[in-house]
Amino acid sequence: MNPIGLGMRGxxxxxxxxxxxxxxxxxxxxxxxxAYAMQAIEEHGPLGGSWLGVKRICRCHPWNDxxxxxxxxxxxxxxxxxxxxxxxx
Length: 89
Prior knowledge:
It is a single chain. By secondary structure, the protein is mainly alpha-helical. The protein has a domain at about 35-75. Helix content is about 50%, strand content about 5%. The chain is built from two helices and two strands. A two-stranded parallel sheet has the order 1-2. The longest helix has 27 residues, at about 35-60. It is flat and about 35 Å long. The relative contact order is 0.16. It is a peripheral membrane protein. Keywords: Cell membrane, Membrane. Could be involved in insertion of integral membrane proteins into the membrane. This is Putative membrane protein insertion efficiency factor.
């Protein structure tokens, strides 16, 4: 993983260790939004993973029922849905 992805995952881990235990439990999804963001960054890279994490956090509100919401798999054939496509040769 590149340094940006590691830094982002480190910040999320700090949140999980320092802030999350102090805040009231209100997560509507499994896995939690922070765990989802960590998995998304690992699977889709820093840009795509953070975009998926932001979209997930935006869905976390009282009018959403929540439930099981796994990270979508990366499309490895063309580099994934959030990776820039290769230029034609």
